[in-house]
Design a protein that fits this description.
heterodimer; A: 311 residues; 0% strand; B: 330 residues; mainly alpha; two-stranded antiparallel sheet; globular
Chain lengths: 311, 330
């Protein structure tokens, strides 16, 4: 009972909050949130919902290859509502599994970038001096290049260090690491700026006076006060991370075709685009565009809603 | 102002040295230059002699200096993949990338800025609202998807334009150009639009918001009170004062254009430097990657520096501030 009451109390507070009000009053945001929720739900339920398991070779039949979408052609087959690719894989199921992988890689790389950025930003802001100088100069040099170039380069270096076969097995981790390493700068700079403001406030001085270790002060006292802006950057970067992964996979240096994300599916479809089999590449492309647009709209809304200056 | 320029120059050199160091570490420690040069059956002693001869046993700082000196002369070693000199491979492909980026930049500037001016002057008109909505989608779509959609419509369905390669090019000895043949010009259209579209939407949104801001200022009201024509006000007074941020963004985006040419070149099988870079990433061809990194680093540093210096040419306020800072410094 007690938890029920606490929960309803929390609900009342949430329903009264500014954020909920700004969410309710923007139809675009509600549409974006609904779309995001639907895509995420379908993607993560793909093992249950998908009509086929497209990357299990035993279930494929070459005679099902290159079927067009059902509603647009008489050659369609109701078992494959969005058609099939040249191997006879169901496009709809491939998209569902691919979206799940794209989302997972996007989320994981945002988490990696955020963790790295927070740690380096805290160290840089709290310790200052040489540590700060070194970290910020590295950040400056990295900012000279677009993130996608950095990610490409990291991926290429990893390929140089390990064999190609081994690379395919750990491709997901390589790609998450490459994107994470190329997006940490923004978090580090934001955290550093906030930490430099926070560290001179009374509560930090008090913590120092009672003899807490710097590590404890950073993690328990400073960090909770700098998370707001970091979370906003993370939401906005999620769309960018998904696009970066899709671009790398499209270029053929991301996820291999045995483990296709949306970008890989678009690349595979693009290879047969000239023959007019457009559905293999257009449907994954449209899914990617819808996902990124919805996530970006949500991120923009969150940034405006959490920024008191814009109200 | 002089102090500022000197500081910026030193900073640029430092960034370049850092990039050079990364490229050197890649070249020297990730790949083994010896393995690329000799066969499987070369004995350990022969390898050691070659190592000594190439200076690979020298102290690391000396090797770094040699690497930088060679790079400055365009010597980047041999590609692991084709065994050709990397410098020549890149040089052969530079014209394709530069011509593509140039056309994309022209497209973005000459369509994006007028669209921005228009939407900034008449924000309530329905065409402005349409431009705004389209530009939102343009910012969210990844480059390669735009390319694929254009190929599908104009090459596969309408069969109007070619979808891959440069078409016929004219060899001018040291430069191959698309501009002198009909098929070369046609081949440029789709890739340039694909590459320039993101920059176009970016410029349009920037010019729009700047114009909206400038049109509210007192000097525009005063110009109207003086009875100047709309044309003189819109272009002579308003647009001119939006130029500082536009130059920054346009300049910085020029670098992004050349970097994103990697994606566009892959979509359209365009034989440029970006395509070479992707192939070298796929094959872990370290010398090509190191050389590309150095070139792009140099390019970005030069662009950033030029943009900073252009401020002084465009904004007289900065010149006097720089002067004031110098006086204060003495």
């Amino acid at each position: 009972m007690a938890t029920g009451a606490a929960f309803s109390g929390w609900l009342h507070r949430a329903a009264d909050s500014d954020i909920w009000w700004s969410f309710k009053s923007s139809p675009m945001t509600i549409a974006a949130a609904t779309a995001t929720f639907l895509i995420v739900a379908v993607a993560f339920l793909s093992p249950v919902l998908a009509p086929h398991t497209p990357f299990d070779p035993a279930t494929l039949n070459l005679s099902d290859g290159l079927k067009p979408p059902v509603l647009l052609s008489a050659d369609g087959d109701w078992r494959f509502p969005l058609g099939t690719d040249d191997q006879g894989r169901d496009i709809l199921s491939s998209i569902m599994y691919g979206t799940r992988l794209s989302l997972l890689v996007g989320l994981a790389s945002v988490v990696v970038a955020m963790a790295l950025g927070i740690v380096l930003g805290l160290l840089s802001g709290y310790l200052g001096g040489t540590v700060d100088a070194v970290i910020m100069r590295v950040a400056d040099v990295q900012l000279t290049f677009p993130a996608i170039l950095v990610a490409l380069l990291i991926d290429g270096v990893v390929r140089g260090l390990i064999s190609v076969k081994r690379h395919d097995e750990i491709a997901v981790f390589v790609i998450v690491g490459a994107i994470g390493l190329s997006f940490w700068v923004q978090y580090a700079r934001t955290v550093r700026g906030s930490v430099m403001v926070e560290k001179n406030k009374e509560y930090v001085q008090a913590a120092r006076v009672i003899g807490l270790s710097p590590l404890l002060i950073m993690v328990r006292h400073v960090l909770p006060n700098v998370t707001g802006p970091v979370l906003v950057i993370a939401t906005i970067n999620l769309g960018l991370a998904i696009i970066t992964e899709a671009t790398l996979s499209f270029l053929g240096v991301g996820l291999p075709s045995t483990q296709p994300s949306l970008g890989t599916l678009i690349r595979l479809g693009n290879e047969v685009l000239q023959s007019g089999d457009w559905w293999i590449t257009v449907f994954p492309g449209a899914t990617l565009a819808a996902l990124v647009l919805a996530v970006n709209l949500l991120g923009d809304w969150l940034r405006d809603a959490l920024n008191p200056k814009l109200r | 102002m002089f102090v500022f320029i000197l500081k910026r120059l030193l900073q640029s050199v430092a960034v370049l040295l850092a990039v050079g160091f990364v490229a050197f570490s890649l070249f020297r420690y990730v790949g083994d230059p010896i393995n690329a040069m000799v066969g499987q059956d070369t004995s350990a002693e022969e390898r050691e002699t070659l190592r000594e001869k190439l200076g690979l046993n020298d102290p690391a700082p000396i090797q770094f200096l040699t690497f930088i000196a060679n790079a400055a002369q365009g010597k980047f070693g041999l590609s692991y993949r084709t065994s050709e000199p990397v410098g020549r491979m890149i040089l052969e492909r530079v014209p394709a990338t530069l011509e593509l980026s140039f056309c994309a930049a022209i497209f973005a500037l000459f369509v994006g800025v007028p669209m921005g001016v228009y939407t900034g002057l008449y924000p309530r008109h329905w065409t402005s609202q349409l431009f705004q909505a389209v530009s939102l989608i343009g910012v969210s779509l990844p480059t390669f998807l735009i390319g694929i959609v254009l190929i599908l419509i104009f090459a596969v369905w309408l069969k109007l334009l070619p979808s891959f390669g440069r078409g016929e090019t004219v060899d001018l000895g040291w430069w191959t150009t698309n501009f002198l043949t009909w098929s070369g010009l046609k081949a440029l259209i789709l890739p340039s639009i694909t590459l320039g579209l993101f920059q176009l939407t970016l410029l349009m949104r920037l010019v729009r918001s700047e114009m909206l801001e400038v049109m509210r200022t007192d000097y525009i009201k005063f110009a109207r009170a003086r009875g100047l024509t709309n044309r003189a006000i819109n272009f002579g007074h308003a647009l001119k004062n939006t130029l500082v941020p536009v130059i920054t963004v346009a300049g910085l985006q020029l670098g992004a254009l050349i970097a994103f040419a990697i994606v566009t070149e892959t979509v359209f099988a365009w034989p440029g430097v970006g395509q070479l870079f992707i192939q070298s990433v796929q094959f872990a061809d370290i010398p090509v990657m190191a050389a590309y990194l150095l070139l792009i680093g140099l390019l970005f540093v030069v662009i950033n520096l030029t943009v900073d210096l252009l401020y002084f040419a465009v904004d007289p306020r900065l010149r006097s501030q720089g002067g004031a800072a110098r006086v204060a410094g003495h």
